[in-house]
Design a protein that fits this description.
There is one protein chain. The protein has 275 residues and is α/β, with parallel strands linked by helices. The protein folds into three domains: 39 residues, no CATH class; 91 residues, no CATH class; 115 residues, Nucleotidyltransferase, domain 5. The chain is 44% helix and 19% strand. The chain has eight helices and eight strands; from the N terminus they run βββαααβββαβαβααα. The strands form two sheets. It has a five-stranded mixed β-sheet, sandwiched between helices. Strand 1 and strand 2 form a beta hairpin. The two termini are 14 Å apart.
Length: 275
């Protein structure tokens, strides 16, 4: 572990550990002493990193409010407020999102080249906002983007983001009848992309909207746009990562379902814990 002060690799590990059990180091160049948590987003937090990671994972995964989580961990002897949960989510959720998006880059193959694109409505600060979402024909997430407007600029921004995160251009895109999509597809993805305009052929995506809509229902809308944008993207990325079916209507046994879910949850916790 390089020095957090000068970046030097001339570091010596100390024999003693911190009160929380973290390893301690000393830089031989600048004399700075630090531990393995120093320099991270949770540097000055008084609670263990693995516990905070679990709080954030449960916050994104399950239909729990901020106060629900504070009450649940109170039974385990950890005393913190709902505002602490909000702060941890703000720090760790973007880290998890960026890592999961990085892992998805370039994956999908031929099956991921048929996209279904649609937008749904969310209440943010008393006003309606538009959540653009796209999945492929097997239900895997392509991208998510929250916008204050439903227009050509927003559609173009969404397709640029989807192209960036997937690392590929689709062969076919299915949308509803909104007039901004044809121009946005041609200008952002090119003339070769086949555009299907059909509300009925997007029923799978309409049903997929239920995931994020059902999750935020207990939150009673969002107070700020930045909070809503961060949560929606983090929720969709984690939901897609924990998704066990790689093909439409694929049958997964209960034993394999438990095994896969356990492995992926551990991976997500490791990403949060290392932040």
């Amino acid at each position: 572990m390089d020095c957090v002060a000068c970046g030097s690799a001339a570091v010596t590990e100390r024999p003693e550990r911190t009160a929380r059990g973290y390893r301690r180091f000393r830089c031989r160049n600048c004399g700075q002493q630090y531990n393995e948590r120093s320099g991270g987003v949770l540097n000055h937090t008084q609670y263990p990193s693995d516990m905070i990671a679990l709080v954030v994972l449960w916050r994104l995964r399950y239909r729990l409010t901020l106060r629900d989580l504070a009450e649940m961990f109170l039974q385990r002897g950890f005393i913190f407020s709902h505002e602490a949960v909000r702060d941890w989510e703000a720090k760790l959720a973007p880290v998890l999102t960026d890592e999961l998006r990085r892992r998805r880059h370039g994956k999908g193959g031929a099956r991921g080249r048929r996209w279904h694109v649609d937008e749904t409505y969310l209440k943010v600060g008393g006003r309606w906002a538009y959540l653009y979402r796209a999945i492929d024909r097997d239900g895997n997430l392509v991208d998510t983007m929250l916008s204050e407007h439903r227009d050509l600029a927003a559609a173009r921004a969404f397709f640029r983001s989807a192209k960036s995160v997937t690392g590929q251009v689709p062969d076919q895109i299915t949308t509803d009848g909104h007039g901004s999509y044809p121009r946005a597809i041609r200008s952002t993805l090119g003339q070769r992309v086949v555009h299907r305009n059909s509300a009925y052929k997007n029923n799978r995506l309409e049903q997929d909207h239920r995931g994020v809509k059902g999750r935020i229902r207990c939150m009673r809308s969002f107070k700020s746009f930045d909070l809503a944008r961060r949560f929606c993207r983090s929720f969709d990325e984690l939901r897609n990562f924990l998704r066990l079916q790689t093909r439409h209507n694929q049958s997964v046994s209960a034993k394999r379902r438990r095994l896969l879910l356990h492995r992926r949850a551990i991976t997500a916790l490791a990403i949060l814990d290392a932040a």
